[in-house]
Design brief:
By secondary structure, the protein is an all-alpha fold. It has a domain of 230 residues. The protein has seven helices and two strands. The protein has a two-stranded parallel ribbon. Helix 1 crosses helix 2 and helix 3 packs parallel to helix 7. The longest helix is centred in the C-terminal third of the chain and has 147 residues.
Length: 353
């Protein structure tokens, strides 16, 4: 998430800035390029004191221009202070003016130090918030949705950085500069509708500005925390729904497997039934063939038995006939024996006679 820093300058109290704008002697904030670069870098890159992101169109244009003008205002102010101190050398109150200049310079340095401390504290808070969100994202999965919500919420209702150089001096005049109008225009463009609800801090003191920044930062942090909680709860609900859906899918897959196994068993039983039916038909055909063969055998055996009975009847008839012949032969033998005895008797009688 690209972070765009925008520096907003509130109305300042300067002394004779308009009359001294033409000449710019070296000052503590303006003359050394290295120190100025360091200040701009710390102001432009420090992600601490901000609540949202500025539009990308203001990154290289208005933001840098406003930062340079704010630094130029401060440098012109210091230049005016020093010039006023130099021109008042011949004045009778030289020491008093010098002390006032030193007091104002010390206040400005303290102001810058406090603002830098505030930026560091805000940077630490942002780092802690990022670490917390990353840990939450690691536990709950990817945080692309959370990052998108964070970016959108930052773009919709957050305030830019307010970096103000403010000093006061007794008897000084407040001069208006065109850069202040640019700052206000940029402020209105960044806030949009938020400018109607959140007033620009009317106080010029550091405590009031810091309090306003703290209140707005806490409000936006609470809003972001609520949105992050809602997103985390939605993520957890989605995970629970996904887990229940996963369980239902597992149960449905198990039921599909059981149904597939049952269909396979039914198909195997149908195949076995068809094979048993085919075996039954084969056995019925075999039984029919056996019956037909048995009937044919019975018919053949009946014919054989009929022939045997006929032969037996013939044999019986022949046996009866032979018995009759034997009886006749026996009768003839008996008759022949009687005739033979009679003949022998006749022969014996003849011989004896």
């Amino acid at each position: 998430m690209s972070e765009k820093r925008v520096v907003v300058d509130l109305p300042l109290q300067r002394r004779r800035a308009s009359s001294l704008r033409g000449t710019r002697p070296p000052s503590s904030l303006d003359s050394p390029p290295a120190s100025r670069t360091g200040i701009m870098g710390s102001l432009g890159r420090a992600p601490g004191v901000y609540v949202g992101t500025a539009p990308s169109g203001y990154t290289g244009g208005l933001g840098a221009r406003v930062t340079r003008r704010a630094l130029r205002i401060s440098s012109v102010f210091l230049q005016g202070l020093r010039s006023s101190g130099l021109t008042s050398v011949a004045a009778p109150g030289l020491e008093r003016d010098h002390r006032e200049v030193e007091d104002l310079g010390g206040c400005l340095v303290d102001y810058i130090a406090k603002v830098h401390a505030l930026e560091q504290i805000s940077q630490e808070l942002e780092t802690q918030l990022r670490t917390h969100l990353e840990s939450k994202a690691k536990r709950s999965g990817g945080w692309d949705a959370l990052r998108a919500s964070w970016s959108s919420s930052c773009q919709q209702g957050h305030m830019p950085v307010v970096y103000s150089y403010n000093s006061s001096r007794s008897g000084g005049l407040r001069a208006k500069d065109p850069s202040l109008e640019d700052v206000k225009l940029l402020y209105k463009q960044l806030l949009g509708s938020e400018l109607e609800r959140v007033d620009v801090p009317s106080v010029t003191g550091l405590d009031g500005i810091l309090e306003t920044i703290r209140v707005q930062w806490e409000r936006d942090a609470e809003k972001n925390r609520a949105e992050a909680g809602a997103l985390l709860q939605a993520k957890q609900q989605a995970e629970v729904a996904l887990a229940s859906q996963t369980q239902e899918e597992k149960l449905a897959a198990a039921l599909r497997v059981d149904l597939h196994n049952a269909s396979c068993e039914v198909q195997s039983l149908q195949a076995e039934t068809e094979s048993l039916r085919a075996l039954k038909r084969g056995l019925e055909n075999s039984l029919h063939d056996a019956k037909h063969w048995h009937e044919m055998e019975l018919q053949n055996l009946g014919a054989v038995v009929g022939r045997l009975e006929a032969e037996l009847s013939e044999i019986r008839a022949e046996a009866e006939q032979q018995l009759q012949q034997r009886a006749h032969l026996l009768a003839s033998r008996g008759q022949l024996q009687r005739d033979l005895e009679t003949f022998h008797a006749l022969l014996d009688r003849d011989e004896s006679s």
